[in-house]
Fold this sequence. Notes:
Elements: H1 4-8, H2 15-26, H3 28-37, E1 46-48, E2 53-55, E3 58-59, E4 63-66, E5 69-71, E6 74-81, E7 86-88, E8 91-98, E9 101-103, E10 106-113, E11 118-120, E12 123-130, E13 135-142, E14 157-159
Parallel strand pairs: 1-4, 2-5, 3-6, 4-6, 5-7, 6-8, 7-9, 8-10, 9-11, 10-12, 11-13, 12-13
Antiparallel strand pairs: 13-14
Amino acid sequence: MFSKSKINEPGPKNPEIERPKMPEATAPKPQAEFSPSAPKVKAAASVLSSDLTVVGNLRTTGDIQVEGTVEGDIRAHLLTVGESATIRGEIVADDIVVNGRVVGRVRGLKVRLTATARVEGDIIHKTIAIESGAHFEGSVQRQEDPLSNGRSSAPVTPVTTAAAKTE
């Protein structure tokens, strides 16, 4: 009846016979070919606006941009703390960019405190960048895997003054 080899072979064909066969034979084929090879679209970051206050924990495998207030722990892939944001709780993410205020522990593979950042708490990181003007009070600890819950025996470096304060 229908076979792939006959459909795909070039050559003269009877137009009356092929028209009904082609839609049935080829319609499912493109869906099967394109579904597995279609690129996965990355979802946009979830944005918590400046007029929003969340009391409770947030957990996602995606990205979060906080512009409002969160009283609870946050776990995400990429966390951006906006300039108007305040977070009271532990934040854990692969990448963390702090532009606003965080009161609590910060754990991330890459942690960046911008010039407008205000952090009160310990930072556990693999890599860290602190821009001039950022305020930080707490301790800094480097770990190979800062996202794990276990505490390592690495020494803690206490920081008691505002880091890189320039005015």
